Amino acid sequence: MKTEIRTEHKLSKYDRDSEYSYTFGIFPTFELVEKRTQYVEKILLSTKLKISADVEKLLNICRERHIEIKYDDRLIERLASKENCFVIGVFKKYTLSNHLGEKNLVLVSPSDMGNLGTIMRTMLGFGIKDLVIVKPAVDVFNPKVIRASMGAIFSLNITEYDSLGEYLSHSTNKKYPFMLKGKKILGTFTFDSDNVDLIFGNEASGLPDEMLDVGESVLIKHSSAIDSLNLPISVGIALYEFTKE
Question: Is the torsion defined by CA of 163, 168, 173, 177 positive or negative?
């Protein structure tokens, strides 16, 4: 529980090099406060905010954990990327995990912030909490990612690697790269139960062909009416199959 007095910082619109990031909206802000209390700087509220049961829940947990609550319409207007934002959580970016879990979802060069956030939420829904991101990739702390995740990001352990080679040199888990040329069809085999990496490539280019020889490559079969499934849908299907047993 935090009791220290925080100093005032000049806050500006989000930038990748910023020390702070933001949650926009009640639900992701509540997840921030509940899961990452130690990094919360303050909660900004609009004077237009209508008090509801969800708002009261947020205010109560802020009071219990001694988190500053401030009404500031002008600051919200400056920080928010969309109109009709009445709640913003301000938090200090924290150091991401530096170790792999037993069951990892690996994303190689994800390029869409909405997709990344959606995948984070889907992971949490299936009980997978270890996410590996191979750079180059979008910024996980961008408010657009956080909003798309609905705050799920704050429940995940996230590890970043600078290259695919660096990730492969660190991971000893059984690897299942999902590829259009995959040698095994999803649903026709059983995943190993422990120490598993499910690996997905970039939205546009997928994984490089050399990944066909890494672990056991997997194909998600679909009709010939489309060339491929989009990344969040593919991840959701894979996680369902992986966790249903």
Answer: positive
196-200/103-108 β-pairing: parallel
Whole-angstrom Cα distance, residue 90 to residue 155?
Answer: 17
- Asked whether the beta carbons of 240 and 126 are under 8 A apart, the reply is yes
Pairing of strands 20-24, 87-92: antiparallel
| Mean pLDDT for the chain overall | 93
- Identify the CATH number of the domain defined by range 103-243: 3.40.1280.10
pLDDT of residue 194: 85
Task: State the Cα–Cα distance between residues 32 and 88, nearest whole angstrom.
Answer: 11
The per-residue b/e assignment along 105-120, b for 16 or more CB within 10 angstroms, e otherwise, is bbbbbbebbebbbbbb
Q: Can you give the pLDDT at residue 24?
A: 96
Q: How many helices (H) and strands (E) does the chain have?
A: 7, 11
Residue 3 has pLDDT above 50, yes or no: no
Domain regions of the chain by residue span? 20-92, 103-243
pTM passes above 0.85? yes
Query: Cβ(56)–Cβ(181) under 8 Å?
Result: no
Residue range 20-92, CATH number: 3.30.1330.30
